[in-house]
Design a protein that fits this description.
The protein is of the alpha+beta class. It contains 13 helices and 9 strands. Helices cover about 40% and strands about 15% of the residues. Helix 2 packs across helix 6, helix 6 packs antiparallel against helix 9 and helix 10 runs antiparallel to helix 11. The radius of gyration is 21 Å and the shape is globular. It binds zinc ion (ZN).
Length: about 350
Amino acid sequence: MDSNFHYYAIKLLACKAGFTEAQAQKIAEYSQFIDDYDRTGRIHTDTPPPAGISYVKEDDLYAVESVTTGFSPVTNAADLLTEDFQRKVVVPFHFILPNKLTEDNRNFVAIPARLNDGQVITRLMEATYREFSAGNRLSDKILIAIGCMAHAFSDTYAHEGFSGFRTEANDFEIEQYVQYDGAGYKDFTEPERKIGPVAYSTLPAIGHTTIGHTADYTNGMFSLKHKSKPDVYLRRVRNNYEYFMKPLAELFRYFQLFTQIAGNFDDIIAKFKQGFLANEKNAAAVWSATDGGIVFAYDKRKIYDRLYSQKGVRSVGSSLGGKYRITVYNLTSEFYIFNECAAKIRREAVGV
Ligand SMILES: [Zn+2]
């Protein structure tokens, strides 16, 4: 799914489920930010992290692991090829398995999650609800967790049948791809075949790299066939425009647990049918028109700015005797909340 779903649809959904607009904004921002937070490695700070946060000391600095949740097929192409990156980033946040990763289910694929189904992601969401019930406060920690988990939950629908690892089972190709524009379906098979997978053309079959983003578009419909074993892997046909209402209906019920506001998703489904026709360029305008008064604005740089800022550069000694330079950051409490939430999802999903 793209921001049309992860940010825009989730913001509208959260507002309609009874969260205040500020709360809905935070939930939706983190639902989308999971795709955008591609910082890898350690972040250094000269201020001791809060209790319970793990770090290593490097000189007099505190080095905290940045739990990467998103990636770009261009800048992270080399990372994506590694099993470690697939396990730590691609699988837990975008292709989460029904159960914690083990040697035995290594080749399993994402299966659409439902409330109370016992999947890892739904159990995490239930734990977040219990934590909320205990304190009865919609703290930033709770809202950020709802957003991050809504992302992984929704992706089990978009990425159904695919694995976040590199595997032959992912090796599908686009047979046909059409988009609904509100009046009818238009064929985009050729452009999608050419342009869609091109960003990933240097990558093997990890996730849905071989079919570009056809699995993610909110107004798309595709049929796929397996490249080498069409007899083993059945042809896949899906209409995202209809299908993506399912995760929204599930999440609507989940959101209502927190707000205790009554209402049926079916009564507001038309708004999402309208919003799903948007594209990345006109999304803010199209989604605003679905429900007057709600402001839609997503800017990943603003979220990054809320997480950390550069404080200076330090020369420290290495164990080999030389000096090297480290950038020192101010890490905010929002950074620690987000990073811990991502670490928790990763731990439960893949055990690291
Ligand atoms: Zn994703």
